[in-house]
Amino acid sequence: MDRDIPTYSLLLLIAFVLIPLSISYFYSLGLKKDIIWSTIRGTAQLFLIGLVLTYLFDLPPFIGIPIMLSVMITVATFHARKKGKELPYVTLALFAGLVTIELVVLSMWLGFGMISFTAEEVIPMSGMVIGNSMVAMGLALERLKNEFEQNRGQLLAALSLGATPKQAAHLSIKTTLNAALMPNIDQLKTIGLVQLPGMMTGLILGGVSPLVAIKYQLVISISIFSSVSISAIFISMMMYRFFFNEHMQLLKLEDIKKSANGS
């Protein structure tokens, strides 16, 4: 599909946002500013990234690709960090996790000849992996904090009966991982039945054969699912330890924050 979309059509589509905006106002949801800001910011970011990608695509792959991946991972790290900023070393853990996942996935893609090392292929596919991993890590951090706060009594009881921090936190970590992974599990179950995924739709609109588009979609869908699972498990296993001190005593979130700020 080589036909361009008229600018006025995009403006009319953006006006469609007035519906959720009106609903937010009518029901006093307090989301008016968030809806307006998200729409403006998202639109501006997409046009900006379009200009940036046009420039990066003209650079040699060994220059353009690392630059864009570094920006993606850095932004994803600081965005996910908001969900667990009270925890020590969370920024380092997030950054290390995202870098490791991206390197492993990219190595598999290139090693098995699934894609070529070009900005047009590496950047969009890596962006989907990094973005979904970022969301999973953020969900895991937020849920982990809630689990330790809400189930404090159960955790204290387990510790008083002689359980180790790992044993006491097992149920909370399990619930955290279920919450972080379930959206991707449900999405993978219904792929192709309830929705035609983004990459597959884009390739078909671009004139690629549906069977070829399906192969690419399978590559990215399985990569995303595996990356999301690993990232949620990694950040949960790294961060739950900070809810206990060296004497295996359970700490409150504010105590963890004070300790982190003090160090």
From TrEMBL:
Key words, A-Z: Membrane, Transmembrane, Transmembrane helix
What membrane topology does this protein have?
Answer: Multi-pass membrane protein
For this UniProt entry, which residues form the secretion signal?
none
- Which InterPro entries does the record associate with it? UPF0014_fam
Transmembrane stretches in the record are 6-27, 39-57, 87-110, 191-212, 218-243
Q: Where is the protein localized? A: Membrane
Q: Which Pfam families match?
A: UPF0014
Q: What is this protein called?
A: ABC transport system permease protein
Give the chief site where it resides. membrane
Task: Give the UniProt family note.
Answer: Belongs to the UPF0014 family.
- Name the species this protein comes from: Alkalibacillus flavidus
